[in-house]
Give the backbone structure.
Amino acid sequence: MILEQHATESELAAELLWHAAPRLQGRKVLDLGAGTGILAIGAALLGAAEVIAVEKDEAAARLLRENLETYEGTEQVRVVVEDIERFTEEGDLVIMNPPFGTKRRHADRVFLEKAFHLAPLVYSIHKTSTAGFIHAFIHDKKCRITLELQKEFPLLRSMPHPHHTKKTRNDLRDTLLFRALGERGREPDNNEVHGEIHEYEHDVANVKVLQEESDYPSD
């Protein structure tokens, strides 16, 4: 079976991590479909107490472990090589860049179902063309979207997998970043203060290097 894989561009990862940062510190974070670890490593660098990176592709997980050995401050990241449908460990929040569902129809639904089953708060990235599905799914789950951003980012397609033979950079593609609360979640506190985004880009600078220096960019 061909896996639908796409790398998480570092600017897009920094955007997600910046919005999630106030809730990462001291928390147990799940990165579902972690790829080679850009989100998991970023969460660790921003103060998560524990990060579980779940990835079923052996090649991606192998590179993820290599990345963890390279960068200090990631000792709390645990790699689990397993299909997310069989993964059952709960956490405080989920961060993920799931399959877009273009090669395997509704592959993104599988990730969303699992994310809301395991944690009360989910940060996720999707194509803007699936916004209608995302809204309907969240409504059906009786959850609430508390953040929704639509931006253009370059999408990298390279991953350590036999049918990905080289790095390629697509044209800009619209992506949707959202934060949603499940039944156990709480409304974000408007008094919580974020730093400027460039401060968070500085914090995840090491994660960006994963894409620039590695044979395969991180997911």
